[in-house]
Amino acid sequence: MNLITNTCVDCSLKSGAVSLLDNSELCALEEGCSKIQYEKGELLFKEGGPVQHIIYIRKGFVKLVKKGAGGKDFILSISKKGSYLGIQNLDETIKTNYYSAITLTKSEVCFIERHCFANLLKQNGEFALKVLSTVFSDEMNYFDRLVKNVQQQLPGRLANTISYFAKEVYGENTFALNLTQTEIAALIGTSRESVSRILKEFQDMGIIALKNNVLTILNENKLEEIKQKG
C-alpha cells in the first residue's frame, strides 16, 4: 500500500462525475481525499468494519465479497476503473460496511471522506446526477446477473459470467482471468469442480480458449446461445 501524491485538480484519472466539478470544488474534494495504491489481494475495507469513506477506483479491478451461510464467501460483483463503492454509506444511520472490497489486480483508489462527498453532491446537481447514473448502471448489471443465477442452469450461468467479464468488466473478448476458479464459483453459486468441468466443456466445444489464465471467446454466437437457453 502506497500513498499517491498528485492532487484532484491535476489528476488525469478523474471520473466523469468529478470532471464536472470546478476548481474550488476540486480543492474541497482534495481536502477530504486520500489516494492510495494497493497490490493484488489487499483489503480495501472489511464487511462489518466502521464506515468512514466513499471509494473511487482510479485503476484496477476489485471484487466485492459478502459472507453467506456458514461463513462462505459470495462474490457480489467485480468493480473496475471509474466505479464508486460504498455510496450507501452516505446514510449516516449506517455504521458498518455491508460487504468487503478486495483488489484483484494492482489498483489505485481514492478514499473520500463521506461528509465531503455528501457536501459536493448537495452543491453540484450535475455531479450528483452523474454519480447516481454510474451507481445505477452498476446495480442494473448486478440485478441482471442475480436473476440469471437464480433461473439458469450452470452452463448458462457460466456463459453469462464470461460474457459479463468481456462486455462489462474488461471490455474485450480476450482478457486475463483475474479470478481463480474458486472465486468464479463464489460468483455464480456453485463448486470449483463444476466451474472447472464446464470451462473444459466450453473449450472442447470451441467456444473459448483458456491458456495461462488468459481467456479468449472464440465463438460469441454459441456462447450467446447457451446464455439464452439457460
What does it look like?
The chain is α+β, with helices and mostly antiparallel strands and 230 residues long. It has 2 domains: 2-138, Jelly Rolls; 152-229, Arc Repressor Mutant, subunit A (Orthogonal Bundle). 41% of the residues lie in helices and 25% in strands. It has 7 helices and 12 strands. It has helices at residues 23-31, 114-123, 125-151, 154-170, 181-188, 192-204, 220-229, and strands at residues 2-4, 33-38, 43-45, 53-59, 61-67, 73-80, 84-85, 100-103, 107-113, 174-176, 208-211, 214-217. The strands form 3 sheets. The protein has a 5-stranded antiparallel β-sheet with strand order 1-2-9-4-7. The protein has a 4-stranded antiparallel β-sheet with strand order 3-8-5-6. A hairpin with a 5-residue loop joins strand 5 and strand 6 (73-80). Helix 3 (125-151) packs antiparallel against helix 4 and helix 5 (181-188) crosses helix 6 (192-204). It is elongated and about 55 Å long. The termini are far apart.
Topology, element by element:
Elements (H helix, E strand, L loop, with lengths): L1 E3 L18 H9 L1 E6 L4 E3 L7 E7 L1 E7 L5 E8 L3 E2 L14 E4 L3 E7 H10 L1 H27 L2 H17 L3 E3 L4 H8 L3 H13 L3 E4 L2 E4 L2 H10 L1
Antiparallel strand pairs: 1-2, 2-9, 3-8, 4-7, 4-9, 5-6, 5-8, 10-12, 11-12
